[in-house]
Amino acid sequence: MNWSTAIRKLFGVAPDAPVDYDLFLSLLDAQDRDRTTKAVQQSIDTGCNFDVQYRVHRQSDEGHWVRAVGTTINGPDGIPARLSGISAASSPVCARMAPRFRCI
User: Is the pTM of this model over 0.70?
Assistant: First the structure.
């Protein structure tokens, strides 16, 4: 995983810390992990975009909402090779209004 400086700050991860999918999941609220995993897996399985919101718990706060929108990028062989997308701070109000996950 390649995270920008802004994403590292959003998730509370040090600039030089290694990041992987397990670390990402560990930073999510336990109630949001399964739903987020399903949205990402659906994108990998079907090629659809993902749009998911989850709570992130940094060491410095009680948690905040993040919205991630992205897609699966296939390699030259047509097999999913990576995910690409954006993540941004969200709000609890937006999170309540949004579907729990969707394929767009």
Answer: yes
